Amino acid sequence: MVSIPSEGGVERSLLSWLDGVGWETHGLDGGRGAGVLDDAYKRDSHEIAYWNLLTEQVVALNEDVTEDNVDKFISSLKRDLDTEHLMDGNRAFHQLLTKGKKFSVQRENGATDTVIVDLIDHENPENNRFHAVNQFSVSRETTIRPDVNLFVNGIPLVTMELKSLAQDNDWHDAVSDLQDYEDDAPRLFIPGLFNVAADTMELRYGAVGAPKEFYEPWNDAPEAFEDDNAMKQAVKALCNPDTLLDLVKHFVFYERRAGGDAKIIPRYSQYYAVNRILDRVHEGVHKRGLIWHTQGSGKSFTMLYAAENLLSRPTVARNPQVFVIVDTDKLNSQMRNQLSNLSLERWIEAESIEHLQRLIEEGSSQLVLTTIQKFEDVDPDVQGNDEVILMSDEAHRFMEADLGSRIKAAFTNYSHFGFTGTPVREGERPEDRNTFDEFSPEGEKYLHRYSVKQGIDDGLILPVYFTLRHEMEWDIDEAGLDEEFEQEFRGMTTDEKREFIKENVTSRTMAELEPRVACAVAEINTHYNEHLSPNGWKGMVVTPSRRSAAMYGERLQEQMGEEAVEVLYTSTKDDSDLIKQFHTDSEERDSIVGAFKEEENPKLLVVHNMLLTGFDAPILKTIYLDRNLKNHSLLQAIARTNRPADGKENGEIVDFQGVFENIDEALDYDDETKAYAARDKDELYDELVEQVERVMDIFDGIDKDDTQEATYQAVERVSTHPERREFKQNFRRLQNLYEAVAPDGRLVSEGIERDYKWLSRIHVAFKRTTSGEDDPEEEMREKTREIINDHVEIGDIKRDFPTYKLGEEYLEDVEGLDNPGVKASQIAHATREHLHPRENQNPRYKRLSERVTDIVERWQGEEIGDPEAVEALKSVEKEALNVEREADEEGMGAAEFAIYTHLTEEVPDAIESDEQAEAVAEAIVSRFGERVDRSYNGWKTNQQTIAEIERILLDVLVVEHDLGHLIQDDDDFVDEVRNYLIQNNG
Length: 986
Prior knowledge:
Blueprint: H1 7-20, E1 24-26, H2 33-41, H3 51-61, H4 70-79, H5 86-99, E2 101-106, E3 112-117, E4 130-134, E5 138-139, E6 143-144, E7 148-152, E8 155-162, H6 171-184, E9 194-198, E10 203-207, H7 230-239, H8 241-250, E11 253-255, E12 262-264, H9 268-283, E13 288-293, H10 299-312, E14 321-326, H11 329-341, E15 347-349, H12 353-362, E16 367-371, E17 388-393, H13 403-410, E18 414-420, H14 435-439, E19 448-450, H15 452-457, E20 464-468, H16 483-489, H17 494-504, H18 507-511, H19 514-532, E21 538-542, H20 546-560, E22 565-568, H21 577-580, H22 586-596, E23 604-607, E24 620-625, H23 631-639, E25 651-655, H24 663-666, H25 671-677, E26 679-680, H26 681-697, H27 708-717, H28 723-741, H29 745-749, H30 752-771, H31 782-791, H32 794-800, H33 808-815, H34 820-835, H35 843-860, H36 866-890, H37 894-906, H38 914-931, H39 943-960, H40 965-969, H41 973-983
Parallel strand pairs: 1-4, 8-9, 13-18, 13-19, 14-16, 14-17, 15-16, 17-18, 20-25, 20-26, 21-23, 21-24, 22-23, 24-25
Antiparallel strand pairs: 2-3, 4-7, 5-6, 7-8, 9-10, 11-12
Helix pairs in contact: 1-7, 9-10, 19-20, 26-28, 26-30, 30-34, 34-35, 34-36, 35-36, 37-38, 37-41, 38-39
């Protein structure tokens, strides 16, 4: 029989790729690779590093560290791992990895010197040792065993968790496991750079401590690492030793946040763009370049990574002065706050024109943050540093008025890099603005590009769909129109007036017509309540004038409430009363915008000339566009809605101006940008139809009714591989699509809603079966939950699919299930839930957990059928329940029984009798209770606890019972017993 791809297969493939790019790998033969290094360097399983290997390397790399003093250094280094908070420890240890550790050295003459000891040789990478091993286990309060770990000089820098799609798991499950590992064994991740989560098809990486939404793909590679296998390419490009050390040394920021520090590492687009800039500066042939990265891709961090590298790499630039130039005070404020919260040291903000000129004259090697407007009155030719590098955000603004000329006058010798998501190309004449001509050398379009399509493919941004509303029906209220207009055109019929307006009145005039505003407001209110409100999304109305904004604001507040709608524009003292009512100052606007980004009011913003650049609010789903935007201005508006959020499938533009009626005229960009910037919302509906068909096909041959028989058959169909995985993944996508499209009359008329109701019913039953959730319907999104509440008999599903828990009383419940596939799925889930937290409490639990995994893999691989799987799993369940019962019968506590079981079942030949095993177990637990202080938090992982347990084992096994061979012959014995004591709390 052909074996299905397993996690072990993914593991071996990944190790082979690492082996091919310079890692010394262990585990390629399918064995436990970490065991090879454990034996070679005498690592105890509670240790997170190969300290003996690091000892060798520290001596080899540092002339001041010798065999005589290295133990003192390593002991000090181990103490750096003792921290209560993972990110604090990670930040401190990163300093040691990049800048070395201070160490006091005793000289032969008696003097003491403080030296810097390097843990890694960054200048000569070949002097380091690079190991990749599988199944590296760490046992402290609990035991974790990630699939693959990467070590540099014995220090763990990368932890990888791998899943097999053939076993119904994917990279999402791998991320969850990694986050559990960070909670269970944080010491392993204190030196860590990033984690990798992968399955058979995809790979994601995320900085240590990152939430799931910040695990991202690595979808580009230098020519040397290019490969048709995307996952292989990602492993080689991201994890080759040179790139890994480059990331460690030059591409890590720590950002202070309200909930605690966050570690930030670059996306591949940022990393490769920065390296292009560094190469260009180093080569010195060209003095400019354009970085064209789509909105939402993190251009600010790209600039900051570039600045940090330019300032810290003398091989690139000797002593440069770096300017980051932004185009508004708002962006300046955002960048200032960013810099203040980052671990970037050499920077200053130009506070005025005079201050900027002084900074240019002084020429100090540092990052200078300034707005482009501050160059307006800077004197010509004041450059004080011959290595000036400028980076202009929103590069098209550099060409406005004479600001670009003022910058060129201030500096006589400089490099200039433009950053933009929306380059400008206004014509072919020399005087026309053209971002490409301004920043790109002849023959080069851009130095680096990251397109809208790439951003969508990577999940970094969402697709945006548009709906045309410019031809809405509205009645001309002749009595309400301007009297002069009526006098001028009183001879026209209503149709003639409508045609005249269409041909002669500007979009601004149209947007200020009372009946049209009333009609648009009614549409906005309906659309908001039906499409945005159910899932908590928010909207923005973009208007062509302050008067039209005020008109929209008045009417929307009437319909939605004053608290729900805010209007933002600049104010003047001569404004009319209509406009004055929405006057706000800068502080008030900041407060409104801050509230909008959260779940509170306002729900809708009405804006004129505000928030269309540099405004990121993932909660913003829809822009109601009543302004005739084009090209870069339109791209900027589109990008406001494309920020990802949980459950958000897409952004949306509701177009009241007809901007998208002719996309070729609206966007003068390449075909790919036009195709992916915004799409007709009918395409989203088509995607939903295709997704419904895709999921329904899983249940081919099963009646699509609400009967008990149909539900049983459907759940059985998705209880095993591969249908189980297909249903899990495809329903997740289907639900998001349905929430994005509904309500839509076609959902009912074309039967989509009917099919979705049925699938939602099956999903509720499936989740109860596979996840043991009592009320899975409560976790579904709002519109889906409404359908379930209205059309699915939850009581029937609860009766037919009882939530199964491990215990004698539930064995009868599962016997009542007719479907053996459902039985197996429920027992497997419940048994795993029971055993997982107990694996380190007793050796039987660990063996039983391994048996469950084996049974499930054989069942999903169709090596055994449903009835056989049920019987095998029930057997495991009964044995699991017997562990505690047998301990009670023997009159032993949990820790004592675990040690007794280990001695009698794991190493029976090492002891004389069961009675001796019982005496040894009793003695160990008794000494543990007497000698280990458990009265404080953290006792379980304290080094004193670990050392004292080892002394107890020496006393009991060696001194009292002459069983020293247990320690000498079995490297894992001490670790296992320590786990039993700690896990069972003594």
